[in-house]
From TrEMBL:
GO molecular function: adenine phosphoribosyltransferase activity
Family designation: Belongs to the purine/pyrimidine phosphoribosyltransferase family.
Pathway where this protein functions: Purine metabolism; AMP biosynthesis via salvage pathway; AMP from adenine: step 1/1
Known EC number: 2.4.2.7
Quaternary structure, from the entry: Homodimer.
One BP annotation, GO: purine ribonucleoside salvage
Cell compartments where the protein resides: Cytoplasm
Main localization of the protein described in the UniProt heading: cytoplasm
Catalytic reaction(s) noted: AMP + diphosphate = 5-phospho-alpha-D-ribose 1-diphosphate + adenine
Gene3D superfamilies hit by this protein: 3.40.50.2020
Source species: Rhadina sibilatrix
Domain Phosphoribosyltransferase positions: 62-180
The protein's name in its UniProt record: adenine phosphoribosyltransferase
Enzyme class: transferase
């Protein structure tokens, strides 16, 4: 799709066609959404605008206190969602980047690498309702670690029982074992239409 083109009829997920496939081999993610973020932001439409609107639609009317984005590409979607909701934004970082008191959580990312993520310990108070945002949920390890950090600090990531004020959002949530674990327990939102989900799960 032309980077500057906006279709006259914009169905949910139209902007997924803006994403670029991996041309660098197995050490990289299979699909790169960053081209979507380059799409022009027009007064009434744009790839990023429509993507964020679709991610937030299931949470309309929910009481969200803060949006948290996961290092690093989750910062883009998370900050955009926070600006749309007029809420604060919290960056959940890879270990070693924060110069303040932190809480840490080890995890295994989609490529099988062992890592640690951190969040500042003073940002989340007990009962704070947090919407967690990342670019992609593949194996679910990164998002699950972020959930554990928020919950250890007393924040609330909504479970699938009333009330469900917050949850987890990503462009794609794959139906992997870890992805299903998250979707079965938390209120989730993603942008992939059901007809395309099998292709995303199979990295096609």
């Amino acid at each position: 799709m032309d980077l500057c083109h906006t279709p006259a009829t914009r169905e949910k997920g139209w902007y997924l066609a803006l994403m670029a496939p991996n041309v660098k081999g197995p050490n990289f993610a299979w699909l790169d959404p960053s081209r979507l973020y380059c799409h022009p932001q027009l007064p009434s439409a744009g790839g990023l605008q429509d993507c964020v609107a679709d991610l937030l639609q299931p949470f309309q009317g929910d009481a969200i206190d803060m949006v948290a984005g996961i290092d690093a590409m989750g910062f883009i979607l998370g900050a955009a969602a926070a600006a749309t909701l007029r809420r604060g934004f919290l960056a959940i970082r890879k270990a070693g980047h924060l110069c303040v008191q932190t809480v840490a959580q080890p995890y295994t990312d989609y490529s099988g690498r062992e890592k640690v993520m951190e969040v500042r310990s003073d940002a989340i108070s007990p009962g704070l309702r947090v919407l967690l945002v990342d670019q992609w949920v593949e194996t679910g390890g990164t998002m699950r670690a972020a959930i554990e950090l928020v919950e250890r600090l007393g924040g609330v990531v909504a479970v699938l029982s009333p009330p469900v004020p917050i949850g987890v959002a990503a462009i794609c949530m794959e139906n992997s074992e870890g992805g299903k674990w998250i979707q079965e327990r938390y209120k989730c939102s993603h942008c992939v239409p059901p007809s395309l989900q099998p292709r995303f799960d199979q990295h096609q």
